[in-house]
Design goal:
By secondary structure, the protein is mainly α. Helices cover 76% and strands 0% of the residues. It has one domain: Up-down Bundle (Na+/H+ antiporter like fold), CATH 1.20.1530. It starts with a helix and ends with a helix.
Amino acid sequence: MNTLIVLQQMIVLFAIMMVGYFCYKKSWLDKNAYGKLSKIVVNVMNPMLIINGVINKDAGNDYGKIIQNLILIVVYFVLLICLSFLVVKILKLENSVESLYRLMLVFSNVGFIGIPIISSVYGETSVLYIAFYILGYNFLLYTYGLHLVSLSVQGEQKQTGKDSFKKMFNAGVIACIAAIMIFACRITVPAPVEAFISYMGEPAVPLSMVLIGASMAQQEMKKLFTDLKMYLFLIIRLLIIPMAAALIIRNFAVDAEIAGVFILMLAMPVGSIVVLLAADQGADETCCTKGSILSTLFSVITIPIVSLLLF
């Protein structure tokens, strides 16, 4: 794997975050604007990005690899969801942040970092396999992820069935359903509609990172870099889990490219969207901000280390 490509991508991410940091410190972006922009990204731009990811994507004739990819996507999310319960117990976290750590373990940055890194290793054709991860990711994000954030806000207080349904039936889930229909039915999208969706979806990536930088500007730097449990969490998330998976998957008859995508997806840093989701729902996004910023910085080193185990 080309370590230089990874380094360049991390520098881009960090530079965009610094723009947000600078804007907040200059008061060009305040707390009120941060909250409103977070809602726009979560409820408008990110759903458009989901749909844009499947428009005009062709599965080709290699259905065997597609099926293997789909199986590993199920394994990916089931594995991380199950491990999230174990990890929070190992770290002996406070109840108030347990669900947020589980959120960070399950939802990594499969899009903004995953696409350029994996496509650089396996070529542009690998983007289709990543699109399925992103689709599953976003469907779970707006259902299970939203549930985890709600637990953080309300503790273990149970919601009524009506409230749960309202939260699950949101823009993100609607976008996922639309994306599945477009891909499965091979629906041709008119050029103006495709352009509109693309224009609305693509800003989600840089704006998300700008808002992460703004969130970083609101934190005390000492607290950001002195959280021991966060460091232990990131060692497990960025190194132990993907490296163990890489060693285990060697024992199965899985296509090398499909296995490589699976392993690298497990090595991705915490997704920036989880910070915005926490902010949008009124949760304490400080914990998620730490995880997103630190994991993004550390992944410059950890992703190349994990890539040594690819086959």
